[in-house]
């Protein structure tokens, strides 16, 4: 079992949370087995996409490689963090530097600002790297209990137990992964002082959007009312805030069904907290009216998981 296999099932089923945790720690503690940071980034991609699984608990390579690619683009091009040891340049870095020089891009350009042609070319290259070097290797490091995969169908899948474990401990796993990732970088890379500052924030923000304007416009055009979702105050399109109902710091993903218009006062006061239960029904109704789908199941699952992960309740 290793990175060369074309597929793997989940080897042990119905194991308890402490065994899953031990398998995750097996991966996070095995510093020597990594020549690059790919596995950390791929593990983060999995955690960031947990609420995008289909009803068979599957995630496509496409979805995962999009997060992975965005993360590396921002870490390498925007934050200038090398990701490979012994002074060698990784395939992903090569691909990014080639794109930057070929397209005459400013190297600080944010992933979201790349045009589709450049983005697609880069995505093809990262998907190739993931298929060859990462999916199987991480599966094996996790003792093949967390997910199975197939390089033919280009999917990974969880079972109900491993999935429940991941959402229950999402925040903890994410932070443990950042710690192992940073430790590995400190031990293996020569990072200049300027780049070494705020490593945890850089990893955490590597998939953050520069702007939520596109969601603001689409909600407005779909007929969402220009008033604060929480206090009802009238607001202007220009001055309103886009609030992640379930905080971004938990979801790590921007979905229009989780975004609401908010006044600055409510937005600042709510910050990283979970809105009181009464707003939950309001959001489900808003989605039903404006987006023609309520997303009830996903929102409820996120809500319960966020509370379980220690996020606190808020009311204005
Ligand atoms: Zn308000």
Report on the structure:
By secondary structure, the chain is α+β, with helices and mostly antiparallel strands. It has 2 domains: 7-205, no CATH class; 213-314, DNA Binding (I), subunit A. The chain is 53% helix and 7% strand. It has helices at 17-29, 38-48, 61-78, 91-102, 116-141, 160-168, 170-188, 193-196, 199-205, 213-221, 248-251, 264-270, 277-291, 296-308, and strands at residues 7-8, 58-60, 148-150, 155-157, 241-244, 259-262, 274-275, 313-314. The strands form 3 sheets. A 4-stranded antiparallel sheet has the order 1-3-4-2. The protein has a two-stranded antiparallel ribbon with strand order 5-6. A hairpin with a 4-residue loop joins strand 3 (148-150) and strand 4 (155-157). Helix 2 (38-48) packs across helix 3 (61-78), helix 2 (38-48) packs across helix 5 and helix 3 crosses helix 5. The longest helix is centred in the middle third of the chain and has 26 residues, at 116-141. The chain is globular, with a radius of gyration of 20 Å.
